[in-house]
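Budget justification note: compute hours in this period were largely spent on complex prediction jobs such as the one shown. Inputs:
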Amino acid sequence: VVVELSDQAAAIQIAVVDSLSAIQVALREVKGLGGRKELDAVNQITVIRNAGEGDVQAAADRAGVNLTPGVGASLLVAHMWQWLPHGRDYASLLGTPWTLVADDDAKADARIVEAAAMALQAVADVDTEPDPVEARAVRETASDHLLELASILEDTGLPQPAMGCAGSSLNFLLESASPRLIPALQQGIAYAVAAGDREKISSFRLREAQALELIGGASPAELRRRLDAFEGLIRHLPADGPARATTLRMIDWALRRDDALRGLIPLLLAQQGRVPDPGSAAAWLLVAGHRMEVASDDDAFPTEFMGFAMAFEDERLERTASTDIGAAETSWSTFAFTHPSLLDTIPLGDSILQERGLHQLFLVIAHEVTHVVTMLGHLAWGTMALQTALLELELRLWTFVIGSKPALGRRATALGVAPLTDPNILALAQAERALEVTLKLRALQAVWQPWLEGVALFGESSSKSTTEHEIMTAIHMVLANLIDVATGDVPELADRDALEKRYRRYLEDGERLHIESIRQHGRFRLADCIVQFPDRYLAGYVAVRAMVSAWRAKRPSIDGDAAFRLLVHATRHGTADAIPDLALPLDRFRATAHERMLDWLHQMGGASRHDLDRFCETEGASAIWKDGRYVEIDASVEDTGPRIEAYLERAQHSLLEEDADPDRVPTASDETKEILRAVASALAASERSWVVEERVLQRLAASVSILPIGGSDCSFWLSEATESVMVLLRTISVDAERRASKYVLLTLGLEADHFSQLRNEVLLRQESRMHVTRVADLVSIARPVEGRPQGTQYLIFHYGDWWHIIRRSFLGDRMPMEDSLRPAVIDRLRPEGLFAFESGLIADGRRGAVRTKAWIDAIGDRWDDLGYPIRSWVDRVNQLADDVLTSEGADDRANARRILNTVAGAEVAQRLGRDGLGGLAAADVALIDELARVLHASAHHPTDSVWLDEHATEVASLIGPVMKRTSWGWDVRAMNGG
Amino acid sequence: METTAILSVADFEASLAAARSIGRTGQSLPGLAAPIDGALSGRLDEAWRTLESVLRQGWRAGKDAARSAIDGAVTKIEEIISGAGELAKDLTEAVMERIRTLMAELIDRAIANVRTTLTVDGAPMRLGGLQVSQKVGLSGGLALSAVRVWELVTNGELEVVATYTLV
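Corresponding output:
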């Protein structure tokens, strides 16, 4: 219901009363509430306070009673009885925040009482506000505190009162289009799910759909959210009763006002050919397929229904697919990649072979998988540690808003960054640390980006022939396993040798496809990347090639395949010393990151013949690269857990104690520097325990080995008769022949219990779609794990707490599933998991920077009111925020030059670093393609080139001495003076 | 009166730049991003550079330029296109779009160079109409279009009939 302005004052009063009731319900869970001993204590405290003796804490001290959770709860409830007559004085109850006396058993109760006290205080602030309709911020604070209380209640295993508090919190968000409504509703839905309250969920879903409709928005993502919300309402429409009528009215209301939603109807109707009023709710409901359950005993859908369902999917995707994704991208945050052709598409069977532009798609997937695989070593661990430290700092910043750290749970993703308001010296220090950590993350990524791009680009052009599958790289394995072969397609099952041969052929088929992609398109993609995006690709590619040439100078038999495996291995297992101490102050961190990366290039380029031989013989098993030497180790040395703990400890020490350089604030006075030192020590002393524990981070690191490849929210239907679920998958985004999407209706027969669990989840949660993801298993790239072959792929079906995993790839329908897979998959994909925190809360530090900047600006001169000479420090923090918001890519060119200078010398750095291959174009644009041809051909092995024989001098004069004729043919000039 | 519309070096370079930008968004890539159509755009650029290279030679050589150069370039472009497999049709269209853009730019710029006023025996005259008398094609297949643009470039001028009226 949209509350009219004139009714809002009354609505606020209702909200106040409702929240009192919700808080009271929450307090009932506290042990000792209303007990004789507790009530005696309450009486003593009240008598002292009535005599005017200060706040509750002081009165309890004076009375000599322990302020236990039971006493605190009794005090609050007793006072709540007095709310109506005394409500406006309620704020005086708390005085200073309480510190409850609680033994281990009562700690949870203490958290509830403290949060309840804060929530009551906030509600009292609304009640005492002269014009609560206008005072939106006061109402929102009350809403926040109720949600925080709800979060603690859920944490304590009390979802029912949590749901009540979340529901009450909504009442304070009068503006139905408030963006705060959606996260609050989602929190409420989560508690209602935990409480198993279907009716409440229906009510929250209805309100969610309404809020999304009112918030509106024309972007594809916004349209998809509200379309899916309304689809959910339709699919879960109650059979009868007032709830049905209310839902129908809501749908009708939305269709009348929302052109985008209404626009989807005509196509559906054309399929049905029988709807009189396209705009009506009835039209939607005629879309019979949107019933959640299949009525027929037969699990086969009528043909016309499938036609409709696919047409609807097409239209939904057409209207709601992101239009701004023109590139494939690997994320430093999630260590996963996105590709426009795999958004909303799940490869199945051999569907990928029918994709339009298959060979181009294969190359891009290979490029992105290379990024992921190459990062999964020290670069990923360092990055994760910094990200985790950033998350921790953001949670700490919330203490300045709600008085305590929010629990690391569902609430944290809904929170967003802490909305700081008041000047506070400790908050300033934490905000500065968060910005420094953000900029260190950026610096580390910027330093290594050219190299990672160079390796990935080299991988696109290096393979020439099929290799033995024992040493196939993870990248090849992921590509080969994109194609599924089922038992029925393999007649050789009984013959072990024949089966082995068949498997080998399967892998070779995949690799052949990759090599054909390289043959067809590799040279053109190489040219496109280094010519069009020189700052991004050229320096890294030249560095990779110069290093490979240096290796070939010592071991000429290193072909493109071997070089690629070596590059990936060295980056993953050889960069430990190239990651700076993560606690270093920002400026030193930046300089050290550059310096060490360049040192690493030198060292790896100088790898000895002996070490190269050993790598090629052992293929990197149980070995790392240290100081450019190949060192065999106990494999556990590179285990993620201890490594990541060490990184995290240092990342968390940013700007603490000796790692806080007071000279970082250039114009700081001695007194200011003293304050900086004192704050750094004080924070260090207060940060002995962390919300984000190492074990959480280790789980995160373990789950990274699951690589999502394609995913989609899919329509699905349950068949009671057959205890199966039918899921409509888009398996081809654009079919090469028909230039249209292709769908498969996949039927999963389930065990009775498993089916029943899904049905219950569906009835409870009332979401419209099931999320399906295809993932590749990369766990064995570090050390082989029994039962989890490298690159093997799985389909993950996920609805609420229901998960179903089926193995795909070669004979997936016949192979067992290893037990460790499931928890890793769930950690990786669950929407409230750690990766969601990163994207929801941290978002690359950008949201925090925007917040901090706005906070500093809003306070303005009031910083001086704190009475400390910190203006120069405030300015520095503001500058850091600016740097975060403006530094994206700013240093790319300088970084590229440094790398070129290291691997190819000053002349090449100067020419290529400034103009890319523009020097060639100035003489004759065709020279670019001739050079790209030689670069591509020589990636696998040095090559002959009549053209370069004739033009070598000219080319060198235009772009510097990049190429060199070796005894085996033309190649990029080797680094280290080669 | 019949006259010629002359193309300057700047006109030629600007026209090439305009054509070269077709099919390019100029968009930078975020993070660890890769272009998804690099194979197509890489082929497009190579095909274009092949043509641009002979057009530049033709511009320099003028009417003495050997026709075999453009024929050779067309053959090479057709090879690049045929190697693109299922992307060949898209690639042909993209190359044609650049050629059309180049031709249109050259004509527009040449015409813009025709004097808009004249003084004859002290009498000022203003350009009243203009007709291109030379055959310039903006349609046809790739080979024909490439040859036509090459002819225009090697001529370095466009024959036009300009009509001036007394002011």
